[in-house]
What we know:
Elements: E1 3-8, H1 13-24, E2 31-37, E3 43-49, H2 52-59, E4 68-74, E5 89-90, E6 96-101, H3 107-116, H4 126-141, H5 145-154, E7 160-166, E8 169-178, E9 183-186, E10 191-194, E11 206-209, E12 214-219, E13 225-228, E14 240-241, H6 246-249, H7 257-263, H8 265-273, H9 287-290, H10 293-298, E15 301-306, H11 308-325, E16 329-333, H12 334-337, E17 348-354, H13 360-371, E18 375-380, H14 386-389, E19 393-396, H15 409-428, H16 434-445, H17 447-455, H18 458-468, E20 473-478, H19 483-497, E21 500-505, E22 523-527, H20 533-544, E23 550-555, E24 567-571, H21 579-597
Parallel strand pairs: 15-16, 15-17, 17-18, 18-19, 20-21, 20-22, 22-23, 23-24
Antiparallel strand pairs: 1-4, 1-10, 2-3, 2-4, 5-6, 6-7, 7-8, 8-12, 9-10, 9-11, 11-14, 12-13
Helix pairs in contact: 3-4, 4-5, 8-15, 8-17, 11-15, 11-19, 15-16, 15-21, 18-21, 19-21
5-amino-5-deoxy-1-O-phosphono-D-mannitol binds at residues 307-310, 354-356, 359, 362, 405-407, 495, 608, 611-612.
Amino acid sequence: xxxxxxxxxxxxxxxxxxxxxxxxxxxxxxxxxxxxxxxxxxxxxxxxxxxxxxxxxxxxxxxxxxxxxxxxxxxxxxxxxxxxxxxxxxxxxxxxxxxxxxxxxxxxxxxxxxxxxxxxxxxxxxxxxxxxxxxxxxxxxxxxxxxxxxxxxxxxxxxxxxxxxxxxxxxxxxxxxxxxxxxxxxxxxxxxxxxxxxxxxxxxxxxxxxxxxxxxxxxxxxxxxxxxxxxxxxxxxxxxxxxxxxxxxxxxxxxxxxxxxxxxxxxxxxxxxxxxxxxxxxxxxxxxxxxxxxxxxxxxxxxxxxxxxxxxxxxxxxxxxxxxxxxxxxxxxxxxxxxxxxxxxxxxxxxxxxxxxxxxxxxxxxxxxxxxxxxxxxxxxxxxxxxxxxxxxxxxxxxxxxxxxxxxxxxxxxxxxxxxxxxxxxxxxxxxxxxxxxxxxxxxxxxxxxxxxxxxxxxxxxxxxxxxxxxxxxxxxxxxxxxxxxxxxxxxxxxxxxxxxxxxxxxxxxxxxxxxxxxxxxxxxxxxxxxxxxxxxxxxxxxxxxxxxxxxxxxxxxxxxxxxxxxxxxxxxxxxxxxxxxxxxxxxxxxxxxxxxxxxxxxxxxxxxxxxxxx
Length: 615
Ligand code: M6R
């Protein structure tokens, strides 16, 4: 989580760093800080608890000149969000400044060693231990800063992306990474550093993705140099072209990124499907599967691993693959999978799903799967992120940068790609008939129009949200393909409005949660006209007979539900397997409007971060 940005060039670095931090705030926003090295070599550090705007207030009185600087926005892992715990952290002498993403696992051992040698600590962070340890290495080894960083990193256990500057040297910045991303932007006479490409967009489109166990030296007067941390041997690197545009990062006239991202879904789903369905609609073409035909033909089982919203998409993926490919499928939370001693071999395919491509638990799960010989397929949004670079093959969802912490367009993109993947595997294995492929493929192609139509219900949902703004609890119920949709609807409400919500399979309700139902407990029931519609009607009746209010999501033209439910929201009819995509739209809107009514910061909900790069 946390965000790093660094700059060295001929411009004042402060403004560039602040702008970069603001773009990175989605990664964490407990505190922020900046370290600037001025032309005379003096080092100036400003830090503040809270959002980047607080940092700007704090830095106002200080000298913010200097064409070299590093900055950080934090999501606390070690120590509370305070000014003192904010990055950058300084070494004992105050001469070395460092920003860090990740966690240093053996920091308490290192801290003890440093304490025994007279070092004192101001913060509770593992990061301060690292910067002090670097200084300790420099002193005990009598080496320069580059060598001291390398020596320190050789002894560090854990995950890190770091950027380091030092007093007295306005010409050099050092960076390194292990299991935490770091990108170098190569401009004309200037260099940028960031934990992902968002702060770099608009300055340069040339980027280098630092690889694990690499350390980079960025010097004003010489070309960028990258070395292996272990061997100190030079490491080769490619300069990639960045495809993200500035426009994609801005709110485009919406009040929030989340609302923009909800309304973008017709376009994002078009991008997601583009080029993946043959013009006549008879075939799905996914190069990631076509290039690995033997693996998919011989596979005996598929396991889907993911976290959060991506895990909900995985649950839908399971049904899709079961229905279209008739093969065994399992779904695991990535965090449970990695510690569950999974039984895997080369006949297994593990599909990892992640918007950011940087989720630590998901990364660790795929590493384990590969070690055990499974073929790992990644479904990801962020191009060039760690997950696509550590999988055997995969498919991008191509929905563009998702900035709002609550995932919306990435979820519908993931379900869309999972549908394509299931169709492609089903075709390859010869178990899905051509008519079914055509039916689903046509509906996917029409999805942009279907979602545009669905979004017209926004004013209706906004009005409905006012009735429920002050509810304390919600139940979300669904069956079949829409049980995961219910889980996702509940998660959306929880994370941005802080209202307790539970998602449940509708038929399970009678085995316990029904005890909770009374006038104070509204239920949102996803009840499109599908194969389970008749079954879910009886679940709605069970809620109504306990005086619970029911909001039903129904297919257009379903008037029967009007007599039973308190409120009905109509969605367009689509094939049953695609109902989660359409039904999730009113759920996203309901959560959004309730959170706005409550005055919450929907793009940056408390305690959360967009990319969870810690265990
Ligand atoms: O980037 P990922 O898809 O791997 O992230 C997984 C979860 O952290 C993420 O989906 C989280 O649950 C979102 N805040 C949901 O809106």
